[in-house]
Amino acid sequence: MNILFVGDIFGSAGRRIVREHIGHVRQAHGVDLVVVNVENAAGGFGVTPPLAEEIFDLGADVLTTGNHVWDKRELIDYLKSVPADSHARPRRVLRPANLQPGLPGYGAYEGTTESGVAYAVIQLQGCVFMNTTNDPFHAADAQLAGIQAKVIVVDFHAEATSEKVAMGWHLDGRVTAVLGTHTHVPTADERVLPGGTAYQTDVGMSGPYDSIIGVDKDLVLHKFLTGMPGKFEAARAIRRCARPWLPATLPRDAPPRSSGSCWGSDGRTGIRD
Fold first, then answer.
1. Three-class SS of residue 133?
2. Residues in the chain with pLDDT values less than 70
3. Cα separation, 82 vs 84, whole angstroms
């Protein structure tokens, strides 16, 4: 079976590029399962229920998130609206499994593709340089203990490369893929580990690359240059320039890009073909 994982959708530019291209990518590669990270889909901060529905309408099977999962509070009731054994869309929006017990939502989902192949998706969040979470390594073990499917995709939303690489080795041979998200910069280390698990430290971002990881360049530069706080906003196609040595209105930025990972695996064993 063929699996497509779409990297962090950032703002309206990310939603647009995915909307324009996900259909023909699915068709060209005969994709059976689509997983999309949506934690920055709403203006760069979180995702709303209507936006989740929009991305499901594009053909996504499961949506993953990360440290911005609670930025849009309306998502909380959306996650609470279905029981654990549901296959409805709110149940297929995941939050990190290693958050504190009792929080809304779920960190894993098990389903079946249209062709009848059982699969699971697990969402984890790193601890290094991230908001406080429980240990993702033991959380991964706990989730796997209750999963029956052989095809298992892990979205590891983490900052540190070392932690992501460690998770790849920890789960090698036990899951189909360990794919890193969060940094918005695609890494060139995609590989199949010795046990058959597909691995990439970060699949990158679907959004405005003429930016600083999705955010307007001038807003981020202002913080780096002055140390003063400011409100971050998703990069726009046409923007005003705050740097006096450049024209007041800069030309249209480069088009957004969609980054992700697509690979094949044996639906019977869950291991990379």
1. coil
2. 214, 237-254, 272-273
3. 7
